[in-house]
Design goal:
The complex is a heterodimer of chains A (274) and B (141). Chain A is an alpha+beta fold and 274 residues long. Helix content of chain A is 28%, strand content 40%. Chain A contains 2 helices and 16 strands. The longest helix of chain A is centred in the first third of the chain and has 59 residues, at 3-61. Chain B has 2 domains: 1-47; 52-139, Ribosomal protein S3 C-terminal domain (2-Layer Sandwich). The longest helix of chain B has 45 residues, at 2-46. The mean pLDDT of chain B is 85. Classes of the chains: A alpha+beta (274), B alpha+beta (141). At the A-B interface, helix 1 and helix 2 of A face helix 1, helix 2 and strand 3 of B.
Chain lengths: 274, 141
């Protein structure tokens, strides 16, 4: 074999080796990219489950919206009183079932009455919609760790007489901000109430039997609780602000169980409220 | 003697010419293979790593979330205008579980449909009225 031929063979081998390395490198990159796409697809499907949960949560937020601002002691509840909740919750499970068919997933939803929001610190918001009754209390049975209850209501009916609760020097601060169709009848009342006693403000409506009661203190054997009760639909929306004793972050869930089954994963639990 | 020398030179030239031709052809083939491999590898490396339907569906989910939060299912044009120019969208609103469309909106400057569209769904209960909403999204051609 001639010297030149040997050189040629070496050169050819080096070239083939270089191309092989290049192809190997490209193959590795392609495999890595396929793995990334596959991981992203799985991540996206998980994201989709989160989207479905958020979708259901946003539907429930139309009934009662909860706002827990960061680094604040306040929790704000806004309840839409115009929605017929009995009709809503009798239809909603079949509506969600239809949605699950369209999205090729498997949903099941169940919300027992009364409508309830439960916080990680034990605080509970309960809306007994068939009796037009809202209650806030500590679900553990202990005193609710609340320093203030404030309620903002705008009435569609002109009020009659108002009976104030007994205000004391210290205790839980109670604020009622009432807006009437007749501006002169609107009022803002605030003061401390004893959390171990039932303190009720009554707002009479023109019809003698119709009234709205706002109570803070001892309710159903639980100290430092809150209750709003209306005998008709004078208030289309009710906003209740609660000041807690601490600023620690709290999570909240609707007392509604949701199960979502997809091809890649499941969600099973209560619907987040905040 | 001179004639023999001339004949030898002629034969050497022919052999060199042949060798040169073979080498050139070899170089051309090598360059072609090299160029082909480089193009193939560059194409593989530079290709978009995220599958487009995923990106589109993610965009669609964001659009529907914004529309619900703003309560704009019946006037989505301003939200559509904020989406990427490379995407087209079409919104269909259905009452409750009905299969009959209540309203439909297409992003300005887009055709009404596309065979490669991705679909995303969302529910709405604003004001206690049940709506099922479908958003079709596709890449603008």
């Amino acid at each position: 074999m001639g010297e030149k031929m040997k050189k040629g063979i070496v050169l050819s081998l080096v070239t083939v080796l270089l191309f092989t390395l290049l192809v190997q490198y490209a193959t590795n990159i392609q495999v890595a990219k396929s793995n990334i796409v596959s991981a992203m697809s799985r991540l996206f499907l998980a994201e989709k489950i989160g989207y479905y949960v958020d979708d259901v949560a946003s539907d429930l937020r139309n009934i009662v919206a909860v706002d827990t601002p960061a680094n604040s002691t306040t929790i704000i509840f806004v309840e839409n009183m115009t929605i017929n909740k009995t009709a809503f919750f009798s239809t909603y499970p079949s509506f969600v079932a239809n949605y699950s068919t369209r999205t090729n997933t498997n949903f099941s939803f169940n919300m027992p009455a009364p409508f309830e929001i439960i916080f990680s610190n034990g605080l509970a918001y309960q809306s007994d919609y068939s009796n037009r009754l809202i209650k806030i209390f500590n679900s553990t049975g202990a005193n609710a760790l609340v320093t203030m209850y404030k309620i903002d209501v705008r009435s569609t009916t002109t009020r009659g007489a108002v009976t104030n609760p007994t205000f004391v020097a210290s205790g839980t601060y109670m604020v009622v901000n009432y807006t009437d169709p007749v501006p002169a009848k609107s009022f803002y009342t605030a003061g401390y109430v004893d959390p171990s006693v039932t303190n009720t403000m009554t707002i009479r409506l023109p019809s003698a039997l119709m009234k709205t009661q706002i109570t803070a203190g001892l309710i159903d054997g639980k100290n430092n609780s809150f209750m709003f009760n209306q005998s008709d639909d004078s208030f289309p929306s009710v906003t209740i602000s609660v000041n807690r004793t601490t600023k620690d972050s709290v999570s909240a869930v609707y007392n509604a169980s949701l199960n979502i089954t997809t091809t890649i994963g499941n969600f099973s639990g209560l619907v987040p409220a905040n | 003697m001179q004639a023999a020398a001339a004949g030898f030179r002629g034969a050497t030239m022919t052999t060199n010419f042949r060798k040169g031709f073979v080498f050139s052809l070899d170089a051309v083939f090598a360059l072609m293979i090299g160029f082909f491999l480089v193009v193939l590898i560059a194409n593989t490396i530079l290709k978009e790593p995220v599958a487009p339907p995923i990106q589109m569906q993610r965009q669609g989910m964001d659009v529907l979330t914004v529309l619900e939060n703003l309560n704009r299912f019946y006037s989505p044009s301003s939200v559509f205008a904020e989406t990427s120019d490379s995407y087209c969208t079409r919104l269909e609103v259905y009452n409750g579980t009905s299969a009959t469309m209540d309203a439909s909106f297409v992003k300005a400057g887009c055709p009404a449909a596309n065979s490669d569209e991705s679909v995303v769904w969302r529910t709405s209960t604003a004001g206690g009225r049940f709506k099922t909403v479908k958003l079709a999204i596709w890449v603008k051609k």
